[in-house]
């Protein structure tokens, strides 16, 4: 009786399987890697970060920072592994992606309550409790099966974009410098400055560069939160200067001034041998990426160890399909978790997997479900994606806008967010305390 199936061992599925197993539930975890790979996954390990190695803000006055702190306190596997494989990245929690995925995989595979099966699942099992966490690149056969199961409701497609990675050795450090914006924290970013003339030439080339062909999708909407750099560039000469190429607070030590434009490189592995181009998600053809991005003076001889790519991203119209616990309203034995529910991002996916796994375990044990309140980031996410008032539903990163406001005025954004975060953590601690006996 106390068993469950989890499909997909990505960010959400790994966390869900762990939460179930930790509560004594026997888990069958199905992952199609390495038998079959999605277009964006390359490693055989679980919880693969297929683009950025950053799990975003670390401080609780940022919404991703609060969500991570809540998960940390609640016993998340993924946050424990992220903390253990952290690399320096200023105010963000970034990880060595290889070490992170290897650690999650080892923990899952060695758990006595988890049985891992390699291979693609093409149908949701007809019986038993299931968590489907197959992500934005869910395989086609399963996609069709899910589509049939949810009846008249439609899946939506849109595009996501990933940034290129260069080797550190190939960056011309004579034309670049380490610094953090406004000298805050440690100087972890490599900054590649451009003067006006260099920027003009780069911008023009970027706007004119050839994109890779796009096939098979009717809906070519670009997700605003992950917009390709060339799309942003085409919006106007100065748009990038207020976006990823913003120079303010990045004084060039050689001139003592802020440059005209700055491309930032963020460390991509613990060894510091790889760096990604921050905000440079792109859908340009690979030779065009090489040609245009090499116009950045510090990258004139750069070795691109991975080019930027654009991929399908699939998500459900969750407000019409799921309840706050990620259960399919019409068939509550089936839960969904991760990006496909319309939570957007690594941590958000892990958080939905956490909630789904934890509450499925409680359901199987006959315990009342835990309702994380809308004052917490975990609760706010589940309530957001299941809120029928969201008519034109779009995926959502965690942000303070979806968490219950304080109800009184506080001066300053940082102070206000800190107070929201402290309230969330206090309420979460109380809640965890009341269910402590149950979850052991
Ligand atoms: P995944 O982590 O993708 O896990 C799903 C797993 O299910 C995979 O391992 C897959 O192999 C497996 N699977 C799929 N179909 C089947 C099947 N039929 N049977 C068995 N197994 C199956 N978010 C960020 O926060 N930062 C980023 O930089 C970022 N970049 C992204 C780049 C790309 C190209 C994409 C597509 C998404 C990106 N995202 C990013 C969004 C999202 O947060 C991640 O995709 C995240 O990994 C989603 O977690 P998940 O658990 O839902 O899915």
User: How helical, in percent, are the residues?
Assistant: 25-40%
User: How many DSSP helices?
Assistant: 12
Radius of gyration: 22 Å
Distance from first to last alpha carbon: 19 Å
Oligomer: single chain
Sheet with most strands: strand arrangement: 6-2-1-7-17-16
Tell me the fraction of residues in β-strands, as a range. Answer: 15-25%
Hetero groups: flavin-adenine dinucleotide
Give a quick account of the main beta sheet: strands, pairing sense, barrel closure: 6 strands, mixed
Contiguous runs where pLDDT drops below 50 for at least 5 residues: 215-219
What shape does the CA trace take?
A: globular
Structural class: alpha+beta
Question: Strand tally, please?
Answer: 17
Q: What is the element string, with H for helices and E for strands?
A: EHEEHHEEHEEHEEEEHHEEHEEEEHHHH
- Mean pLDDT across all amino acids: 90
What tags apply to this protein structure?
440 residues; globular; alpha+beta; binds flavin-adenine dinucleotide; six-stranded antiparallel β-sheet
Describe the structure in your own words.
The chain has helices at residues 11-22, 63-74, 77-84, 97-109, 140-149, 196-208, 229-234, 286-293, 346-364, 377-385, 413-434, 436-439, and strands at 3-7, 26-31, 54-57, 86-87, 92-95, 114-118, 130-132, 156-162, 165-167, 177-179, 189-194, 261-267, 274-277, 304-306, 309-315, 327-328, 331-336. It is α+β, with helices and mostly antiparallel strands and 440 residues long. A six-stranded mixed sheet has the order 6-2-1-7-17-16, with helices on one face. A six-stranded antiparallel sheet has the order 10-11-12-13-9-14. Strands 3-5-4 form a three-stranded antiparallel sheet. Strand 1, helix 1 (11-22) and strand 2 form a beta-alpha-beta unit. The radius of gyration is 22 Å and the shape is globular. Residues 215-219 have low confidence and may be disordered. The structure holds flavin-adenine dinucleotide. Flavin-adenine dinucleotide binds next to helix 1, strand 2, strand 8, strand 15 and helix 9.
